[in-house]
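Thread: Newbie trying to understand structure tokens

Hi all, I'm a second-year student working on a class project, and my supervisor (Dr. K.) asked me to get a predicted structure for one chain before our next meeting. I've only ever worked with sequences, so writing a 3D structure as a token string is new to me. If someone could post the tokens and maybe explain what I'm looking at, I'd be very grateful. Here's the chain:
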Amino acid sequence: VEDGNFMIRALVEKVPYHTIRIDSSPKVSDIIVDGEIINSEDLPVTFDWAEGSTHTIEVANQVSEIERDTRYSFLKWSDGVEEPFRTLTVTEDLELVALYTVQYFLSVTSYYGDVKGGGWYDSGSRAEVSITQIQVDHGNDTRHIFIGWSGDVISNERSISIMMDSPHGITANWKKQYHLLTAFSIEEIGVPEGGGWRDAGEIVYLTTPLVIEIDEDSRYKCAGYVIDGEALRPKTEVKILMDKPHKLSWIYYHQFRMKVHSPYGDPEISGNSLGKPVKNEDWFDKDSTITVRLRPLVDHGNSTRRVFSKWTGTISEVNPDLEFSLLKPHELNALWKTQYFMTFEFTGPEGEPIYLAIPPTLVLISPEGEEISDIDYFGSWIDKGRHDVKELTWKGIDVRTPDFSFIDVKGPGMLSVPTLVYSLTVRVSDIFNIPISGAMVKLLTNGYETTEYTQLEGMATLNTPSKYYTVRVSYLGQSIDISGNASVTPFIEARIYFSIISLSLILTVIAIGIIVSIVVLRKRLAPTPARRSPITTPERGLNKCSYCGAEIRPDDVFCPNCGKKIKD
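---
Reply by user tm_fold:
Sure, no problem. This is what the structure looks like when written as tokens:
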């Protein structure tokens, strides 16, 4: 560079140009080249661009509708570039064609759940359609269930594949269901059949067993059903229209068997069955109050009766009337005693009946071990069976015979009770054999004594607990003791010298004699005649008793030794 002047040397090279041809197939969209829109009608268009220059090319419409549900969609450039907008650096001649493909719309419709696969598909491709939920629960015992596809494709599959050779439309079909809740009122029974989801409008027929057996003595029995909280309907079958959700409860009662056995007394059993009062049934509700009533005394009208004794079985009780809560099966047996109406006769050692003003005291032990002491000898109800004799006393003295240890009651009637009480009859008369009434007769034996007074016939009957006795007869200051054996001489004759009657007769005779003597003496005036020699009357002869051989007088009516009557 000299004097401010400079020199520039430029080397110029020739730049080559390339032909760029731009088109669209089919011609469905404008092309924008370096910002300039080229109408599809003007395509193809050709550009000469210098090598190395850069240009922008873009399709104006990636999608072009042909008709409803059918369109063209940009696919790629002919050189393989898939972006609709591109930047091109020129390196060679090039033909760029925007390639479009035909697409069809697949319409997928569903009122419930989520569906996949709807939208635009290239012609000839396959669309994969599926539904994510086949069950939609609305939370109020109502739901919808997917049942299949309808429209251009009919299928009940959850996922389907569709050839997209034209526009298609499919719809997911659903059915409405209501929940039917079924239950037993007693959870232990389980869950009844027939419950669950049911199609809307469906008519459901359900039945349940009248009785569900648990074992021989325990069961469940159906009283009916309750639906949606309405009143109980006493049926074991039901028809339900599924126009809404429903709740059905079969009402069952847990029941136990009540067995009551009694041949007498007409037992009556009361309680609840299926929640209602009933009588004389075999089955009753659990926890119900059971009442058992029984006539404890059954008189058969033939001097025979039955008397309730006690309950045995699952309940032991002596009270004929029961009341309890039924918590388990029961079997009750009523035990009865047979009783007979008995009268009692006491007999002496020889088996002869004796009649005592104060009867003996008889104490028995019943077949059940109970002591019986309050016996009415004129008539008492006595248990059937063998009764042990605990005591037989009379006036505090044991009068039981050695072999009298029990009484066997087999039927109504009279019971003969043997005793060691002897009967002794005493006849008191004077020397003229005139009966004396009012004489005191005292019997003494082994510390026992008793006193009786003779009656008009001069007789007194006494009883003694010992066969050996001493009898003292007292009358008008006169007294006589007689001892004997009551088993040998049950009758004795006691003679007193004078009685009121005999004294009266003697005094009367003496008075008459005196009067007669006086009269005779007065009348006699003549001297006393010579006395005659006395004539001795022969002594009266004595006889003997034909029973015991003792000597008796001719005027004796009873033997003074054995007491037997010897003369009428």
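A couple of things are worth pointing out once you decode it. DSSP finds one helix and 46 strands in the chain. Confidence is low (pLDDT under 50) at residues 528-541. Feel free to ask follow-ups in this thread.
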